[in-house]
Amino acid sequence: MKKIIVTLCIGSLLAFSCKNSQQEQKKEITKDSETTEFDYSAKSALKYLSSDELSGRDTGSEGIEKAAIYIEKSFEKFDIEPYFETYRDSFKLKQVDGYNVVGVLKSKEKNDLKPLVIGAHFDHIGHIEAIENDSIANGANDNASGTVAVLELAKFLSDKELKRDVIFALFSAEEKGLVGSKHLANKMKDMEVEPYVVFNIEMLGVQMQGKDYRAYVTGYEMSNLAEVFNGFYEDEEEFLGFLPQAAQYGLFKRSDNYPFFEVFNVPSHTICTFDFTNYDYYHHVKDEYEELDVEAYVKLVDDLKPGVLQLINSTETTVNLN
């Protein structure tokens, strides 16, 4: 009997110790992230989210927890409300706890306009086979660049008069098969919330050369989004264009726009500048902040903002499936 009591006591102590250790670890993550967040800018956000400290942001990892806390703190700073009870939209991926981070800006107008979803995945692939003793796939272009673009749009839109609600969705487990976006699309379907357009963002960190447009849109022929969006700009150069390789490689079905198209059958596209010739570090340990054209990236995101605002404030249903 004494042995049983001693064993139980040791087990309880170990469990208590483990729980305390996990709590302390989370406190440290929060503390580190809060310190970084206070220095928010597009450049500092891009640098932090792609840093070695986040270890490649694999779903379920300590690194992606740090990224999520950073995104949440940014949303709080920009007065973006949680879309659900908290910013976390949780799901299970086998034995791993996954979660999207979802915020919303609500229109002050009373109308029946459907919300616009602006999204990007914030996860990456974590550690991979080492090259020169570096095993961290930092995911600067893929997809810290898309994540920060969403944060920048949230910051820009936070003090604007909006005709419709805007949902900002940072997806995880994209690299595991679009799991986070599938989860959110189905959850919104259950809530009977149908989006007007899903504007997903991937890999904007390196610019295209020799094109007469700034970025391409996947599933170009599926809707008139590019035509409508380009109409918001007076420049001779189009903002969104058609990249043949995007169709060739089926990119429309390979990012977080696609689950929303499947579930709702609404215009759902990804905006991207990676064209298979301008960046050698896809899913590579060298996908790091220093390899990006950061100045051109920031300008591209800044130039994107007024078009997105006009897309939100178009009161007629101007974007339609073809």
Sum this structure up briefly.
The chain is α/β, with parallel strands linked by helices.
What does this structure look like?
The chain is α/β, with parallel strands linked by helices. The chain has 2 domains: 1-38; 42-312, Aminopeptidase. The protein has 9 helices and 11 strands. Strands 1, 2, 3, 4, 7, 8, 9, 10 and 11 form a 9-stranded mixed β-sheet that branches. Strands 5-6 form a two-stranded antiparallel ribbon. The longest helix has 36 residues, at 2-37. The chain is globular, with a radius of gyration of 21 Å. The model is unreliable at 1-38 (pLDDT under 50).
Which features would summarize this protein structure in a list?
disordered N terminus; Aminopeptidase; nine-stranded mixed beta sheet; alpha/beta; 322 residues; two-stranded antiparallel sheet; 11 strands
Summing up helix and strand content along with how strands pair, one would put the structural category as: alpha/beta
Sheet with the most strands, sense and barrel status: 9 strands, mixed
Kindly provide the radius of gyration, computed on alpha-carbon positions and rounded to a whole number of angstroms: 21 Å
In helices, the fraction of residues equals 25-40%
**CATH topology description of the largest domain:** Aminopeptidase
The CATH superfamily name of the largest domain is Zn peptidases
- Distance separating the two termini: 75 Å
Which whole number gives the mean pLDDT? 90
Bin the strand percentage. 15-25%
Write down the overall geometry: globular
